[in-house]
Predict the structure.
Amino acid sequence: MRHAVTPAAGAPAIGPYSPALRAGQFLFLSGQIPLTTAGTVVDGGIREQTAQVLENMRQLLEAGGADFASVVKTTIYLADLADFAVVNEIYATCFVEPYPARATVQVARLPRDVRVEIDAIAVVG
């Protein structure tokens, strides 16, 4: 059994996918980019973009009955690994020990030419 999860006032999906999908006890968050609820990329650099991505994730987690403590795995996609330290600093404000398992990779390009995208898997219940 699975069903789509969307927050009441979250950033819109920009393609044919669910922002999050609940399957049993698992909540799978699609890659979140720094879109505002209006569907535009947040103003600013990597700091502002990372904060928006994490806010979008928070909204999806809450809509799916979870929170950051429920997250067991994330993947961070960066346009430039030079941004790693800043992303790490902001990421650390949302997650607590034991931290989720994580992979971080540099990619050639991200949707809408943003600098960061993060996806996640959480356990609910």
User: Anything to note?
Assistant: The chain has two helices and six strands. The chain has one domain: 2-123.
